[in-house]
């Protein structure tokens, strides 16, 4: 299960796939790149929110 992050600009929630794929929300303000070793969040901190499920 990947880390979920919600873009506060467009409201889309994206999720890391644990394979290092660069996944962007539809407005491209927020993106995530996640593997088993690291999580990289791209965007302004105030423009996204981490979702802990
Ligand atoms: Zn967005």
- Our measurement of the CA-to-CA distance between the termini, rounded to an integer number of angstroms, reads 10 Å
Unreliable residue runs: none
Structural category is mainly beta
Quaternary state of the chains: single chain
Residues in helix, %: under 10%
The number of distinct β-strands equals 6
What is the total domain count?
1
What general form does the structure show?
A: globular
Q: Using the CA coordinates, give the radius of gyration.
A: 10 Å
Q: Major β-sheet, in short?
A: 3 strands, antiparallel
Our count of helices gives 0
List the helices and strands and how they pair.
Blueprint: E1 4-7, E2 13-15, E3 19-24, E4 31-35, E5 39-42, E6 48-51
Antiparallel strand pairs: 1-2, 1-6, 3-4, 4-5
Overview of this protein structure:
By secondary structure, the chain is mainly β. The protein has one domain. Helix content is 0%, strand content 49%. The chain has strands at 4-7, 13-15, 19-24, 31-35, 39-42, 48-51. The radius of gyration is 10 Å and the shape is globular. Bound molecules: zinc ion. Zinc ion binds at residues 7, 9-10, 12, 25-27, 29-30.
